[in-house]
Amino acid sequence: MISTNIDYDRPGAQFGTLRLPNSVHRSAYGHIAIPVAVFVNGSGPTVLLTGGVHGDEYEGPVALSRLAREIDVADVNGRIIILPTLNHPAFVAGTRTSPTDGINLNRTFPGKQDGTATEMIAHYVTTELLPRTDCLIDLHAGGSSLQYMPALLAPRWSDPDKTARTEALVAAFAAENVIYFDSVRALSGEDRVLGNYANRHNVDFLTGEFGGGSTVNVAGLAVAERGVRGVLAHLGILPTRLPPAGPVRRLVMDDPGLFAFADRRGYFEPKFVLGQSLEAGALAGLIHDIDIPWADPVPVHFRAGGVAMCIRTYSLVEAGDCLGHLATVLPT
């Protein structure tokens, strides 16, 4: 259902849109224009760069928009497809989910050709973009409700060839913190995520969390920008001179006990900060009663120990809200 004024095979630089059908009261034949930039030259591989999968995450859109402005197509060897705000309806609204249908784009792959707006975006990525792609980098942040210590997230594979390719990409990205996790499934156990369908199309991919709180994390933006350019240079698509990589801390996020969740309504008082190392059973924080403020607050603990990588932005919580999570440092 989505069309475009872009020719993905035409040499040169193109700036256009994906036309997402949007027939509404105020615009009977309307569409939502999702910005896309494509650079084609030479015979190298194709990289798909996406940001704004969630509409309240900004490091990716800033990094990818700047990259699109600065690319000289004469320097390109291959194809670069850039969608800085893939979930454009959500991005315009500044919300995690789309205001058109209330759906989380990264929980609706492979999408539906004749589905809702978000399902159509997922279907287009699955059927039109991933089959053209050799490597995907999908830039994220914590959005409105969470803040992250900037970190690259990398999938773990049992296949040695895929592992070797991934590790080469990780080295090229050169992030200070690298978290290995199950990219085929979301934390909730769902497999309707972009990484799963990249894997099904044999597309190498990286993702990451580079800030949050519905603002731009300056340090995280720098990590994302340096990382994307590093991968493009590694793949031979775009020559770039970059400073040497610093030390890398490798972590893993595979134990449910690394997460702390609210078990009741209230307001949350955290007892940890990002980057802090916590022992198993450490106090994550206190949930205060909204209606009886002099009642003793209820403590919430992390069951497992690790480094604090994520913390909740909002103090007000409902039962089931994530309060933060840790990651375990891998032995060197």
Task: Give me a quick take on this structure.
By secondary structure, this protein is of the alpha+beta class.
Q: List low-confidence stretches.
A: none
Number of strands: 19
CATH topology descriptor of the largest domain: Aminopeptidase
Q: Say which CATH homologous superfamily of the largest domain is assigned.
A: Zn peptidases
Summarize the biggest pleated sheet: 15 strands, mixed
Q: Do you know the CATH architecture of the largest domain?
A: 3-Layer(aba) Sandwich
Describe the overall structure.
The protein is α+β, with helices and mostly antiparallel strands and 332 residues long. It has two domains: 3-252, Zn peptidases (Aminopeptidase, 3-Layer(aba) Sandwich); 256-329, RNA polymerase II/Efflux pump adaptor protein, barrel-sandwich hybrid domain (OB fold (Dihydrolipoamide Acetyltransferase, E2P)), CATH 2.40.50.100. The chain has helices spanning 59-70, 88-93, 117-129, 160-173, 194-200, 218-234, and strands at residues 3-4, 12-21, 31-41, 46-50, 78-83, 135-140, 146-148, 151-155, 177-181, 204-209, 249-252, 259-261, 266-270, 277-278, 283-288, 298-301, 306-312, 316-317, 322-329. α1 links the parallel β4 (46-50) and β5 (78-83). It is globular, with a radius of gyration of 20 Å. The chain starts with a strand and ends with a strand.
